Structures are given as C-alpha cells and as structure tokens.
Amino acid sequence: LPYVPHVPPTALLGRVTATTFALERPRCVFDGHADASDAVWLAVAFANASAAFRNPLSRADVPPYKQLPTAGSYMTLETAAAAYSCSAPSPPVLRVGGDTACRDQGRQDPCNGPLPSPGPYRVKFLLMGCGGPKAETRWSEPILLR
What we know:
Largest sheet: 4 strands, antiparallel
Radius of gyration: 14 Å
Strand content: 25-35%
Structural class: mainly beta
Number of helices: 1
C-alpha cells in the first residue's frame, strides 16, 4: 500500500522521547483489504535492519520485542483491523515503546516495550489474516529518538 507511517507533524507532548515516539494512526488505509478477523501489526526495526525484515507467515512467527537487540526488529501493537477503518472512532496517535511492563521477565509478547537506543528506527504497518500477510504499508523514514 502507498501509505508511509510518520510521526505527527504537529507539536505534541512527548512526540519523540528517549525511549518512545508517537505515530499518526493509519485511518482508512486497510479498508477494502481487511476482513473482520484480520489484525494490523506494527513492525519496528532499526533503520539499518529494515531491508532484511521478512513478514511473518503466521502469528506464531511474529518476532518478539525481546529479540530487538539481536534481530534488529520486532512486531507490536496488534490491533483489530476494524479499529483503523474510516468509521472507527479512535485516538489520532499511537505510542511506540510505551509499555514499561515489557521489562518483566514473565511478560508475554507481543510487547510494546521502551526502545533501547536512539535508533534510528523505521516502522511499517502489516495487515495479517489467518492465512498470513495480506497487505503492508511502506517503511517510514528513519525516526531518531532524543
């Protein structure tokens, strides 16, 4: 899909911090591609690792947050595709890296944990159905944390 994820251009408290960044919510992007049972994921990768990222073939293959330091990427923010439809009432932004509970050892992925370094990072949205990936956005421009 031609959509490119991006940090909101407006002044926003905590738009980019040392461990998180805000992303504009991709409304209407997946309409016409998604079924009721589909989910949208956010792939997060170090900018230099985004080209090597391979879409998982099933939910069981989703790369977990704890692999970010070694694999250079993970997936998070699994959301029902309907939440991104044109008609869905939703907050205008998503927070990447906002879940500090991910540090807990017993915590199960997918986790939206604090980002471990300034990056830069690149992100893309991936529409997944029960049969695997169905559609994806382009990668964002590199996002550098403070």
